[in-house]
Amino acid sequence: ISIMEVRNRRQKQKYRSMIGEFRSLTNALPDATLAIDENDVITWFNHAAETLLDLKNPGDLGQPVTNLIREPRFADWLAVQGVVQSPLEMASPRGDRRWLAVDAVAFREVQRLLILHDTTEVHDLEKIRRDFVANISHELRTPLTVVQGYLEMLDKHPEDEVAVAVAKMLKQTGQMQSLLDDLLELSRVQSGAARSNEEVLNVEALLMQHKEQAEEISAGRHQLVFDIESGVGLAGVATDLKSAFGNLIANAIKYTPKNRTVKVEWFTSNDGPCLRVTDEGIGIPTRDIPRITERFYRVGSGRGQKTGGTGLGLAIVKHVVNAHGAELKIESELGAGSRFTVQFPAERLRLQAATAANETRPENSAEDG
How far apart are the first and last CA of the chain? Predict the structure, then answer.
């Protein structure tokens, strides 16, 4: 036997040993892992994938992964991976009440690894939390409404000595009502119940509605500018997007001193549809920007109290943005103002004809002093 043949045998044995070690390592992983090619055909999977997804080896090798994971949102999610990098939470295709978080990792030139993690326990705990918030909010709303009703009656016929006290109590009950409303809204958007109700949203008409509401909130104290690109529609959940857009606009007005400008823009960027809300408000410290979208997070001790904020508006915005595969970018300078940009993926762009709302206005931009 030649020296070359001996070397080749040793090299083959080394490769076999490495492959065996790799298989042992991947089969020891608790997460289901699948390799798919450029056509989304399964080329390999580990033992956890057999358990979590009920895959059969070798029978399911060579099958399109979408034939075996039939969750409709999975196919849509898989189609945009590489453009939109975000995990997907979905029900187990086995129908066993498990929940899985799916992520995609590119490797080699055209292949991808799909990694599925069992998130059932976290999902169930989150559902318990959401249900608790929704239930307690409903339970508190009825007695609060009764108290507020009696206070309003007293406010109509106040005695001098109680007038100030009644006014303060009405302000506090109003704040509590806003908090309950935001808790219920956050619980609703987090439940994901409306995700199956996606539609093509006429953003131009929606923002005209928000413009009217902004005028009421501002009461003439600000210059409001709405610059809307005509015919740029958006695929998404209308109720959730309306809530998110409204919170961004209302926040900008609340934190902007009078006689300054709040500008709302809707346009198509190189990356897709984009909403931008810019204000000349009090600004946000740089250290607080990463946490500003957390529930109940406050920037400064008196910020929320002065404006009547609940600390939930931006949490609602962040959740809606993530659910639509979009990105929220926050830029701010203390004393100069803030800019909130929501960049939607290009796949959500829907071109539309000019709306009737726009036809009645000579310009897309409207200003109010």
Answer: 94
Per-residue pLDDT 10s for the chain (369 aa) are: 577 787 888 888 887 777 777 777 777 788 999 999 999 999 999 999 998 898 998 899 999 999 999 888 898 888 887 655 678 888 888 878 889 999 998 887 788 889 999 999 888 877 777 777 777 777 677 777 777 777 777 777 666 666 776 777 777 777 777 777 777 777 777 766 656 678 899 999 999 999 999 999 999 999 999 999 999 999 999 989 999 999 999 999 999 999 999 999 999 999 999 999 999 999 999 988 988 888 777 776 445 545 556 678 898 899 899 989 999 999 999 989 999 999 999 999 998 765 544 433 333 333 343
Where do the domains of the chain lie, and which CATH numbers do they carry?
Answer: 31-118 (3.30.450.20), 120-191 (1.10.287.130), 195-368 (3.30.565.10)
Task: Enumerate the H helices of the chain as residue ranges.
Answer: 3-28, 47-53, 65-68, 72-80, 120-156, 160-191, 203-218, 238-254, 303-307, 313-323, 356-359
Sequence-distant (6+) residues with CB within 8 A of 120 are 97, 98, 99
Strand 99-107 vs strand 111-118: parallel, antiparallel, or unpaired? antiparallel
Report helix, strand or coil for 123: helix
pTM of the complete model = 0.57
The pair of structure tokens assigned to 173 is 């009950």
Tokens 């809707």 belong to 266
**CA 90, CA 93: separation in Å to the nearest integer?**
9
- The contacts of residue 21 (CB under 8 Å, 6+ apart) are none
User: Which residues pair with residue 301 across a beta bridge?
Assistant: none
